[in-house]
Amino acid sequence: MTVQDIPTLNAALNATATVLILAGFVLIKQGKREAHRAAMLSAGAVSAVFLVGYVAHKILVKGVHTPFGGESPAIRAIYYTMLFTHIVLAIAIAWLVPKTFAMALKGDFERHKRWAKVTFPIWLYVSVTGVLVYFFLYQWWPASPA
Which spans are transmembrane here (predicted)? Predict the structure, then answer.
């Protein structure tokens, strides 16, 4: 594995988290509390591994940002709007997810449910846009080599 492989691995982890987050949502709606718990804890673990991979990649590339190769003003606007919201909400998720998990783990399910109504859509958005950022940067509009 090389440093160039890490973004692909991170995208796969984000995609896996997305599936687990959605599964957890469906499971709790079906009243399957234990399966919901397993799915959400798994999503949390996968997201934590992603975070380690993301930070490791940033360290290994010495903080150099991957340039975006999309030249169309419309595509650039979509990408940078998505990237900005992804970054801001990812920062929020780093606090919201552990806080929401803590309430459930303590058995405070009423507060957990209220917080999860906010945390769930933000976490889902961050997870999905993380995969999209990967596709925008590495698959659909990679920057041309200099």
Answer: 6-27, 39-57, 77-97, 118-141
Answer whether 36's CB lies under 8 Å from 28's CB: yes
Strand partners, 119: none
- Answer whether residue 145 shows pLDDT above 70: no
The predicted-structure confidence for 56-90, as pLDDT tens digits, reads as follows 999 998 877 888 888 889 999 999 999 999 999 99
Q: Domains of the chain: which residue ranges?
A: 3-140
**Cβ(137)–Cβ(66) below 8 Å:** yes
Instruction: Give the domain 3-140 fold.
Output: Four Helix Bundle (Hemerythrin (Met), subunit A) (1.20.120)
SS (H, E, C) the chain: CCHHHHHHHHHHHHHHHHHHHHHHHHHHHCCCHHHHHHHHHHHHHHHHHHHHHHHHHHHHCCCCCCCECCCCHHHHHHHHHHHHHHHHHHHHHHHHHHHHHHHHHCCCHHHHHHHHHHHHHHHHHHHHHHHHHHHHHHHHCECCCC
Contact status, residue 82 vs residue 141, Cβ threshold 8 Å? no
